Amino acid sequence: MDANTLLLGVVVVTALGFDFTNGFHDTANAMATSIATGALRPRVAVALSAVLNFVGAFLSLKVASTIATGIVDSGAITLTVVFAGLVGGLAWNLLTWYFGIPSSSSHALIGGVVGATVLAAGASAVKGQAIVSKVLVPAVLAPIFAIGVATIGTYLVYRITRGVPDRMRAQGFRVGQIGSASLVSLAHGTNDAQKTMGVITLALVANHTIGGDAGTPFWVILACAVTIALGTYIGGWRVIRTLGKGLTEIETPQGFAAEGSSAAVIFAASHFGLPLSTTHVCSGSIIGAGVGKRLAEVRWGLAGRMVTAWLLTLPAAALVGAITWKGADLIGGAGGVTAVFALAAVLALGLFLAARREPVTHANVNADWTGKLVPAKESVA
Amino acid sequence: MSQYVDFDALWKVLVAALLAGAGLVAVYALGLVGLAAARNEDGRSAARPAGVVVAVVCFALVLAGAFMGLYVMLAK
Fold first, then answer.
1. b or e along A209-238 (b: 16 or more beta carbons within 10 Å of the residue's beta carbon)?
2. Using a CB-CB distance cutoff of 8 angstroms, which residues of chain A are in contact with residue B35?
3. What is the pTM of this model?
4. In chain A, whose CA is at the least distance from the CA of B72?
5. Which residues in chain A (314-353) have CB-CB distances under 8 A to chain B?
6. Could you give the ipTM of this predicted complex?
7. Which pick of A289, A340, A381, B19 has the fewest CB atoms within 10 Å?
């Protein structure tokens, strides 16, 4: 095996690792409300979401557009830059997962690539205007849109069904909630698995393994679909708990309105080409569902922490991406990338072990919110 | 300013999201009201079978909306 093949292999493995955390981090977007309201049992919910993510990854097979295209000069993108960008995104995904904070995987990846590019090719290789129009402005708009739509939807739902008996209302919205959450899962698989497909295809093209105008090879599609589904099934229970229990107490009608709003905003944004983050939309919808029901309490302090994390996503991932690129570059070649990869893997393992000491799982994900992410042992249901 | 913000896509997304996200959700709720009127579980007034028709129309609308959403998203 020559050095180039080794480098390519490490990049592909890192990309799949990112894809895994993407699924794992975002299970909450589709399923947190269904789990919180009891519409679906926790493990059934993550299994359903995993299957739909898998299916979704196969649904739209237009050439996967790469996330970094248009944000940095395409000439500046080398395998090492792609690798460093992925590590930046991965690091931020894992860190926010540990603290149970939903944050955008795409922003993390973009941040990582931008950071690596600045060191590799200079700040002029980064297109500032594209970052504003494709990343920052949509990040502000996504939660605002979602809060608005979900607030109106929730208000209407409660208003319209005032006369419907409670039991029937709960059952009816339970079915609706499962349906709308399934749509969100499907959309997630379609949009997010494609990002990793794009990154791997880019790496293959850069390495001349496939031609520049070749489509995404089937094994890439399959690998990405399997990995994102696996990540979804493992389930980022910490993030699920924050979204489902932390932000606001959710009843079935609210869950239905929130998922309906998320699905609508994501579908519309995807159709009209506005790059909104699934995570920002879903978090906004859940806040809207809290606002739309009179007297429902939204924990604005927690929402504020989430927004802070969103603001930090780009610079933090950029920093890690830059450090990773520098480290790999100092050691040099495929060996440098491999060494940094090994270091990153050790750090990731450490974080997983730390999380296991205070686990959030399918068993305690719905425990009452007492201001802390990890519920006390005795409150485990 | 418009080089930073795609206003054309913006208002389209907002209108579509409101129609589907709040509109269809409300239609689904209307379907439940129809179903409740037909079943009349609380026995306060006479059951109204016409409620079933309302429910079927509403749920069909919501399903059609969902499939249309999937279709337009995948056909981009």
1. eeeeeeebeeebbebbbbbbbbbbbebbbb
2. 168, 172
3. 0.88
4. A271
5. none
6. 0.88
7. A381
